[in-house]
């Protein structure tokens, strides 16, 4: 099995990836979306259509970097590229299943519900790692959640057994990770990065993966990027992004001097 396409695309809603030198060292295509309006957290219909058109024109398919978790709704567009019925495997500290999209614009908090209701090929969502599930939350039958706590993590084989289709899509929000391994602009979970890598490797070995996306960056303004704290965030996120990328491409991690 494995990843069907090994192209890399960076979606530039802002300057987030400009200083991630290790990620930039991999062959990739950048799509400039900085001039689109009303895309942060919520996306208005006109901008959503433009994003979808830009994705259709891209030459590199396989792995897509989305930016901060505020743009996670782009995953719902990438899921439309499924060649046959599939399972979405989502690593996220939040379920992203607010049903408010029916009255409002599509958002980073509603895209999973939106995809389930609009994508006929999406058979199941397997959600791994959230710590923020509310007690009253009852997912639909097509969603299986493996929540994490500091004391309880799910067995890899149990997670794999929940994926019933051969075709799979992997979406990774780095807020599922403990802050030791990534820093995001949302509250974070407790997953160790090696545990995340283990799940990804197992899925790639057992399933056909038609796409992977990665988000969870912390936007840093140009005025802050050289401050010690901000540059530390950039280096940390760049490092884990590159490790995920190398794992998915089955390549050796690259080291960039000064990164």
Note down, in words, how this protein is organized.
This protein is of the alpha/beta class and 259 residues long. It has one domain (2-249): Ureohydrolase domain (Arginase, Chain A, 3-Layer(aba) Sandwich). Helix content is 27%, strand content 21%. It is built from seven helices and eleven strands. It has helices spanning 21-24, 45-57, 75-78, 111-118, 156-161, 193-206, 228-249, and strands at 2-3, 7-12, 29-32, 42-43, 62-67, 86-91, 106-107, 122-128, 143-146, 167-173, 208-215. The strands form two sheets. Strands 1, 2, 3, 5, 6, 8, 9, 10 and 11 form a nine-stranded parallel sheet that branches. A two-stranded antiparallel ribbon has the order 4-7. Strand 2, helix 1 (21-24) and strand 3 (29-32) form a beta-alpha-beta unit. The protein is globular and about 45 Å long. The mean pLDDT is 91. This is Arginase. GO terms for molecular function: agmatinase activity; metal ion binding. InterPro entries: Ureohydrolase (IPR006035), Ureohydrolase_dom_sf (IPR023696). Belongs to the arginase family. It comes from Weizmannia acidilactici.
């Amino acid at each position: 099995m494995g990843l069907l396409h090994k192209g890399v695309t960076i979606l530039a809603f802002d300057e987030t990836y400009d200083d991630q030198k290790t990620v930039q060292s991999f062959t990739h295509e950048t799509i400039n979306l900085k001039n689109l309006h009303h895309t942060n957290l919520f996306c208005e219909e006109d901008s959503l259509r433009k994003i979808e058109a830009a994705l259709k024109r891209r030459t590199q398919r396989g792995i897509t970097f989305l930016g901060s978790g505020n743009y996670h709704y782009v995953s719902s567009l990438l899921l439309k590229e499924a060649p046959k019925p599939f399972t979405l495997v989502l690593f996220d500290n939040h379920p992203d299943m607010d049903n408010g999209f029916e009255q409002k614009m599509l958002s980073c908090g509603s895209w999973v519900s939106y995809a389930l209701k609009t994508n006929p090929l999406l058979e199941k969502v397997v959600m791994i790692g959230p710590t923020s599930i509310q007690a009253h939350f009852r997912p639909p039958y097509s969603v299986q959640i493996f929540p994490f706590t500091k004391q309880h993590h799910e067995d890899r084989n149990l997670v794999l057994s929940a994926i019933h289709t051969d075709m799979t899509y992997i979406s990774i929000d780095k807020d599922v990770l403990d802050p030791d391994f990534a820093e995001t602009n949302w509250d974070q979970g407790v997953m160790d990065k090696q545990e995340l890598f283990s799940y990804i490797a197992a899925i790639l070995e057992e399933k056909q993966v038609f796409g992977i996306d990665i988000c969870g960056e912390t936007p840093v303004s140009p005025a802050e990027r050289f401050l010690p704290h901000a540059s530390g965030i950039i280096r940390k996120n760049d490092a884990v992004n590159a490790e995920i990328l190398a794992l998915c491409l089955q390549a050796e991690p690259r080291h960039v001097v000064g990164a």
